[in-house]
Specification:
Number of domains: 2
Strand content: 35-45%
Helix content: 10-25%
Number of strands: 13
Mean pLDDT: 76
CATH topology of the largest domain: Nuclear Transport Factor 2, Chain: A
CATH architecture of the largest domain: Roll
Structural class: alpha+beta
Low-confidence stretches: 1-65
Length: about 210
């Protein structure tokens, strides 16, 4: 790292992570240059594969080695994996041998690959997706989210052939965590088809 005319040039991402702890520094991902300007309340930038988020003064490395707290992990999954399709984040959010109950119920692949398939299929069959997080509550090794979504039903989902219509659903997602990563995923949802569907991943045959 070098300093020239008041500018700090990043030569590695670890320095970038450390420098973002200063409230007087903002990142320019295009030039990899840090300039002394005011940092907004939430700032994100990417540097050689590192994605860093600064929220109200607390730094989280979303793709890195540091653990997220349970609520931040759930929000990352819903906001970035489900809503935005950043499926590569799952590798850092979930254990390789985790269990996705919903994926199991529909015969998908085992382990973390099943969660990837679950999220990918959901986004493929429910398009123009709009996700709203109502509440997230975490406690130690468990975290729950109450969320809802709307989207166009364009593929087979929950045993329903595509209707081409906008549907809305309410979902409760539950993560069991081990060492800060997902070890089990359970969900309950109500999908507002003309003939509504209620799905409980812990009791998929009901």
């Amino acid at each position: 790292m070098g300093i020239y005319d008041g500018e700090i040039w990043i030569t590695n991402c670890q320095h970038a992570v450390e420098l973002t702890r200063s409230p007087a520094i903002a990142a320019d991902p295009e030039s990899r240059r840090l300039e002394h300007t005011e940092v907004e309340r939430e700032q994100r930038y990417s540097c050689e594969g590192w994605l860093v988020a600064e929220r109200t003064g607390q730094l989280n490395e979303i793709v890195g080695t540091e653990e997220l707290d349970p609520e931040a992990l759930m929000r990352t999954y819903l906001e970035r994996v489900v809503a935005e399709g950043e499926l590569d984040l799952i590798e850092n959010l979930a254990h390789a041998d985790m269990v996705d109950e919903a994926n199991q119920a529909f015969g998908g692949p085992v382990g973390r690959a099943g969660l990837v398939a679950h999220a990918k299929g959901f986004r493929r069959y429910i398009t123009d997706l709009d996700v709203t997080i109502e509440r997230v509550v975490g406690n130690g090794d468990t975290v729950m989210a109450w969320w809802s979504f709307s989207g166009v039903h364009t593929g087979p989902w929950l045993g329903k052939l595509p209707t081409g219509q906008v549907i809305q659903a309410t979902v409760f997602s539950f993560f069991d965590l081990t060492e800060g990563r997902i070890s089990r995923y359970r969900l309950w949802l109500y999908a507002g088809f003309d003939d509504p569907v209620i799905f409980d991943s812990s009791r998929p045959d009901d």
